[in-house]
């Protein structure tokens, strides 16, 4: 029996390519911000599928939208008109302040691929400037503009010949890289995979000005920060910043794969049929799901409470960890928060949280990333802070 079990395990291990360092846990169901594993243990989820499950689990509005759409039409080729897609484009453009035309795909990397292609096509230039420590996806082009060597080492040459990297948050460093060959600068308003790194206030608006006076385009990567994550629908909206192209994905359809690339109307005439495309992108099902998410998230009252809950979480954590020497700082905006500490603090915190029924994520070994469902309650966040206090106390810190 033991041998058979070992063989089965071996078979199971070999059936999947080893691309993820997975935790040994399988979730079977969820409701609101709660998850249950296969043994029936309950958790409060502070990860939300990495900023994807914006409405948490089994949200009645999202479930109804998906079921209704699935019962009539799941897929329809982009060779034909798709009403949901047009409606979603109108609403996303309005949420970005109007004046954008949209292209739909299925993921963040695809949304960025489209953004990069459109920028090159619209400017007739071919170089891109990106930030060190950025993350824009795992396809060849998006890896090329990802400023973290660990993701692309061993896969070169990508398209790096045409990419220059500048220091995130340092406007002079970006200005130095701008010349007449630069089609676009691609930037995250807050670096997510880089470890919840916020630029200094005013950086995005300065960057927007510098890029435009160079005749280049500004691509804002809102894949992780979009759909209300930071308390504005898009995170760039915290500043005076006018992106030419916006990419977004993750939370947009609450867990159904979708990507969207918004292109300023003045630029849209340079994109012609055949320039880009996607079989699945913007299909009736994913766009129905996204419309349901926007019904909930796309209004000021909802966004305001995301900002408020995030502010409580941030100040609560700052207070808790202010006298913990391993913690250098707690950063974030809205429900996108990072606890920065010397290793092994983050992994010890993750394991402690898990043992107390909370799911958190660790980035770069030194940051605890918190990106819970946007519908998480104040009570659940309070319970999380109590757990964090118990962790600090167990180590002899905190009151
Ligand atoms: C800012 C940013 N851009 C792009 C991506 C890639 O998105 P996807 O994994 O959906 O391709 C991610 C994913 O983490 C991201 O955080």
Task: Describe this entry's structure for a reader.
- The protein has 399 residues and is of the alpha/beta class.
- 38% of the residues lie in helices and 18% in strands.
- The chain contains 14 helices and 15 strands.
- It has helices at residues 2-15, 48-51, 60-70, 83-95, 108-123, 140-144, 149-152, 171-177, 203-213, 265-268, 284-297, 300-321, 345-355, 378-394, and strands at residues 27-31, 34-37, 42-45, 100-105, 127-131, 163-166, 182-187, 217-222, 245-248, 259-264, 327-332, 337-341, 358-359, 361-363, 367-370.
- The chain has a seven-stranded mixed β-sheet, sandwiched between helices.
- The longest helix is centred in the last third of the chain and has 22 residues, at 300-321.
- The radius of gyration is 21 Å and the shape is globular.
- The protein starts with a helix and ends in a 5-residue tail after the last helix.
- Pyridoxal-5'-phosphate binds next to helix 5.
Describe this structure in a few short sentences:
This protein has 399 residues and is α/β, with parallel strands linked by helices. 38% of the residues lie in helices and 18% in strands. A hairpin with a 2-residue loop joins strand 1 and strand 2 (34-37).
């Amino acid at each position: 029996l033991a041998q058979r079990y070992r063989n089965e395990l071996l078979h199971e291990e070999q059936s999947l390519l080893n691309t993820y360092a997975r935790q040994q846990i399988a979730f079977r169901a969820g409701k609101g911000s709660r998850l249950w594993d296969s043994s029936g243990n309950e958790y409060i989820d502070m990860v939300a599928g990495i900023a994807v499950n914006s409405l948490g689990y089994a949200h009645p509005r999202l479930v109804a939208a998906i079921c209704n759409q699935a019962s009539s039409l799941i897929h329809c080729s982009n060779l034909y008109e798709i009403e949901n897609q047009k409606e979603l484009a109108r609403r996303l453009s309005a949420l970005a302040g109007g004046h954008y035309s949209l292209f739909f795909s299925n993921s963040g990397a695809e949304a960025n691929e489209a953004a990069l292609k459109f920028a090159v096509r619209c400017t007739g230039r071919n170089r891109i400037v990106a930030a060190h420590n950025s993350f824009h996806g795992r396809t060849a082009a998006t890896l090329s503009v990802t400023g973290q060597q660990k993701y692309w080492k061993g896969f070169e040459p990508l398209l790096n010949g045409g990419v220059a990297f500048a220091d995130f948050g340092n406007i002079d460093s970006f200005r130095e890289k701008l010349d007449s060959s630069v089609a676009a600068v691609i930037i995250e308003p807050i670096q997510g995979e880089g470890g919840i790194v916020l630029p200094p206030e005013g950086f995005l608006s300065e960057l927007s000005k510098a890029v435009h006076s160079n005749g280049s385009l500004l691509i804002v990567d809102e894949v992780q920060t979009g759909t209300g994550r930071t308390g504005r629908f898009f995170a760039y909206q915290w500043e005076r910043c006018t992106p030419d192209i916006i990419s977004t994905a993750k939370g947009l359809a609450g867990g159904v794969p979708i990507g969207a690339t918004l292109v300023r109307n003045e630029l849209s005439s340079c994109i012609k049929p055949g320039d880009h495309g996607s079989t699945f992108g913007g299909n009736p099902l994913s766009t129905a799901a996204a419309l349901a998410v926007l019904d909930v998230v796309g209004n000021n009252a909802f966004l305001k409470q995301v900002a408020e809950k995030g502010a409580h979480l941030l100040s609560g954590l700052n207070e808790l960890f202010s006298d913990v020497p391993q913690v250098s700082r707690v950063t974030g905006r809205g429900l996108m928060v990072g606890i920065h500490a010397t290793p092994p603090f983050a992994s010890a915190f993750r394991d402690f949280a898990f043992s107390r029924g909370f799911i958190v994520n660790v980035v770069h070994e030194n940051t605890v990333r918190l990106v819970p469902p946007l519908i998480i309650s104040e009570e659940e966040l309070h319970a999380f802070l109590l757990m964090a206090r118990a962790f600090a106390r167990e180590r002899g810190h905190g009151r």
